[in-house]
Amino acid sequence: MKGVFAWTGNSLDLLAMKEAESKDPVRPERETGLMARIALDDQEAMEELIGLWKLPIFRFFLRSLNQREDAEDLTQRVFIRVYRSSPRYVAQAKFSTWLFTIARNLLIDEIKKRKRRPQEVFDERIENAEGRGDGQVEEYREILLNQLDAIPENQRTALLLRVQRELSYREIAEVMKATESNVKTWIHRARLELRKSLSNLRQKS
């Protein structure tokens, strides 16, 4: 399976991050079939699954760590774990929930290894803010990134899964092994901090 994990630069081009994301790139029954084939060492099935999910996973890591090389490395490690776990895979939860649980566990390990907080790019729709010059948009982005750096990992991850992947509160709770109430609280607090930062910036403008 070594060749399965090769990367092509174009497929992970940062410009692709601005494209609209589908909430579920593949139907659950199709994923189950692919995982069954992967368990039998079907390389084509593994390549198909990677093609469907590598960009959403890559975005998750890139927006969390803000480093392309590390995001690519962690994305590959996710699919290595998927391959190794395929014989034991049981389609109980949504595939995306299972997959992002693997991704988050790797992210937490990476954060612990670095002993520093990650950075993530919040809601890219800010780039399309009407009536604002490029300089002000960049200033807004810098403020948001600085504020995100102070937000706890659980709030940051919950917000990212909600905004980027549009997961439900229940799905985020499954990924993060928390209650829906906790997830809602984390997202609410994260948004309050970001809105406060933007409000302060607007008042100074």
Any idea what the shape is?
A: elongated
CATH level 1 name of the largest domain: Mainly Alpha
Major beta sheet summary: none
Helix coverage percent of residues?
55-70%
Structural class: mainly alpha
Mean pLDDT over the full residue set: 76
C-alpha end-to-end distance: 55 Å
Order of helices and strands, N to C? HHHHHHHH
Kindly identify the CATH topology of the largest domain: Rna Polymerase Sigma Factor, Chain: A
The CATH architecture of the largest domain comes to Orthogonal Bundle
Brief summary:
The longest helix has 25 residues, at 180-204.
Structure notes:
The chain is mostly helical and 205 residues long. It folds into two domains: 16-114, Orthogonal Bundle (Rna Polymerase Sigma Factor, Chain: A); 124-204, Arc Repressor Mutant, subunit A (Orthogonal Bundle). The protein has eight helices and no strands. The protein has helices at residues 28-39, 43-65, 68-85, 95-114, 134-148, 153-163, 169-176, 180-204. Helix 7 packs across helix 8 (180-204). Mean pLDDT is 76; it is low at 2-23 and 116-133.
Quick tags:
205 residues, mainly alpha, Rna Polymerase Sigma Factor, Chain: A, Arc Repressor Mutant, subunit A, 2 domains, 8 helices, 64% helix, elongated, disordered N terminus
